[in-house]
Design a protein that fits this description.
The strands form four sheets. A six-stranded parallel sheet has the order 5-2-1-6-7-8, with helices on both faces. A three-stranded antiparallel sheet has the order 9-10-11, covered by helices on one side. Strands 3-4 form a two-stranded antiparallel sheet. The chain starts with 8 loop residues before the first strand and ends in a 5-residue tail after the last helix. With about 400 residues, the chain is of the alpha/beta class. This is Succinyl-CoA--L-malate CoA-transferase beta subunit.
Length: about 400
C-alpha cells in the first residue's frame, strides 16, 4: 500500500532534531527522504543519549525510512551532487543557521533557479529575518523566548523544561504543515515553489493560547501554576493515599456536577457561585482542596474507577513503563516491534496520525551512514566509475 506522499522526494540538509523530525514524519507517509550527512561521523544524533552497540537508539527512530548518503559539502563535486538532487526534489528541509546554505553556495536563489517548483523549509532559532536572525538558537532557547518555560513548573521553583525537546518538535510540525501547504499549491498548478520560514521561538509562541490579549487588555502575565490549568477550574493534579497522582479535568459545567456528586459534595454543584467556570475559577483553591481531600483517601485505582463510572475525565500520570504495558497503546499500534542491525528486537513508537486509506508505515530503521550513497547516485545517472572517482576526490563516502 502506497502512502499519501508516495512519489514526493525530499532532500534533508539537517542535523539533530528539528529538520530530521519533520522529514521523519513525511517519510513515514511514503515520501522518499534522502538525508545528506557529512562523511566520517554523520549526523551527531547518531551518538546522542542511550546507545546500542555504538549507535543511538534515538537515531534508529528519528531516521527510519530515510536514505542516507554521505556527501562532503565542502567539496565542489559534493555540492554538485546536492544540486543535482535538488533538481529532482519536491522539498528541501534544512536547519542551518541563517546564511549557512548561502555560504556553501546552496541558497534559495541557487536551488530555486535549478528547480522553480522547489519548496524549501528553513528551520532556525529566530527565522530568516529580524535583528536576532544570526544568533545561535536551539530548542531550549525557543522554549524560553517563546513563553512556554515561563508558564511551566511550580510557582515556588525556577521555570522548568518539558522533559522532551518540545521546541524543536513544534518547529518540525510547523515545517511539515508549511511544506504540505506549499506542495499543494505546486501540485494543483496554482504557483511555483516558495520558502517556508520556521522559527523555533515563533513555533512555541504560536501554541501559547490567549497569552498576548490577556496581557494587553487585562495586564495579566500568565506564569507557573504547577499541575493546574489556570482559569479553567477544576483541572489539576491531585495526590492519592498510595503516593500516586491523578489528573482530573472537571471543568465543563455538566462534568463539574458529576464530579461533585462523585466526591460527595453535590452541594457545591448546586452553589450558584460555581455554576460556571468564571465563578469556579475565583475559588479554585477551595475546589482543589476539596477534591484533593477526596483523592487522598483513595488509591489511584480506586479514584480512577469512581471517576470513570461517573464519566469524569481523569487519568494517571504515565511513565514509559505504563505506556508500553497499556492495552490501548497496543491496540492502536502505538508500540511497534522493530529489529536493529544484528537481529536485536526492540520496541519503537508507532505512527501518528492514523490515516484510514493510506496509513503510514515503517519500512526500515535509521540506516548506516552512507548506506544509500551508491543507489541514490545511480538514480542520478552516475555509473560505478564516476561514483568511484567522486570517492577518490573525497566528495562522497
Amino acid at each position: 500500500m502506497s502512502g499519501p506522499l508516495d512519489g514526493i522526494r525530499i532532500l534533508e540538509l539537517g542535523q539533530l532534531i528539528a529538520a530530521p523530525f519533520a522529514t521523519r514524519l513525511m517519510a513515514e507517509f511514503g515520501a522518499e527522504v534522502i538525508k545528506v550527512e557529512p562523511p566520517g561521523d554523520g549526523d551527531p544524533l547518531r551518538k546522542w543519549r542511550k546507545m546500542h552497540e555504538g549507535t543511538s537508539l534515538w537515531w534508529y527512530l528519528q531516521s527510519r525510512n530515510k536514505k542516507s548518503i554521505a556527501v562532503n559539502l565542502k567539496s565542489p563535486e559534493g555540492l554538485d551532487v546536492v544540486k543535482q538532487l535538488a533538481r529532482s526534489a519536491d522539498v528541501v528541509v534544512e536547519n542551518f543557521r541563517p546564511g549557512g546554505l548561502e555560504k556553501l553556495g546552496l541558497g534559495w536563489d541557487v536551488l530555486s533557479a535549478l528547480n522553480p517548483n522547489l519548496v524549501m523549509v528553513r528551520i532556525s532559532g529566530y527565522g530568516q529575518t529580524g535583528p536576532y536572525r544570526d544568533r545561535p538558537g536551539f530548542g531550549a532557547i525557543g522554549e524560553s523566548m517563546g513563553g512556554i518555560r515561563y508558564t511551566t513548573g511550580s510557582p515556588e521553583a525556577p521555570p522548568a523544561r518539558v522533559g522532551v525537546s518540545i521546541g524543536d518538535t513544534l518547529a518540525s510540525l510547523h515545517g511539515v504543515i508549511g511544506a504540505l501547504m506549499a506542495l499543494l499549491r505546486v501540485k494543483t498548478g496554482q504557483g511555483g515553489g516558495q520558502v517556508i520560514d520556521v522559527s523555533l521561538v515563533e513555533s512555541v509562541f504560536n501554541v501559547m493560547e490567549s497569552l498576548v490579549p490577556e496581557y494587553d487588555l487585562l495586564g495579566e502575565v500568565r506564569t507557573r501554576t504547577g499541575g493546574a490549568l489556570p482559569g479553567i477550574t477544576p483541572s489539576n493534579t491531585y495526590p492519592t493515599k498510595d503516593g500516586g497522582f491523578v489528573v482530573i479535568a472537571g471543568n465543563s459545567d455538566p462534568i463539574f456536577k458529576r464530579l461533585m456528586a462523585t466526591i460527595g459534595r453535590p452541594d457545591l454543584a448546586e452553589n450558584p457561585d460555581f455554576r460556571n467556570n468564571d465563578g469556579r475559577s475565583k475559588q479554585a483553591a477551595l475546589l482543589d482542596a476539596t477534591i484533593g481531600e477526596w483523592t487522598k483517601a483513595r488509591t489511584v485505582e480506586e479514584a480512577l474507577a469512581a471517576l470513570d463510572a461517573a464519566d469524569v475525565p481523569a487519568g494517571r500520570i504515565y511513565s514509559v513503563a505504563d505506556i508500553v504495558a497499556d492495552p490501548h497503546y497496543q491496540a492502536r499500534d502505538m508500540i511497534l516491534q522493530a529489529e536493529l542491525p544484528g537481529g536485536t528486537s526492540v520496541k519503537m513508537p508507532g505512527i501518528v496520525p492514523k490515516l484510514s486509506e493510506t496509513p503510514g508505515t515503517v519500512r526500515w530503521q535509521g540506516p548506516a551512514l552512507g548506506a544509500h550513497t551508491d543507489s541514490v547516485l545511480s538514480d542520478l545517472g552516475l555509473d560505478a566509475e564516476r561514483i568511484a572517482r567522486l570517492r577518490e576526490k573525497g566528495a562522497v563516502a
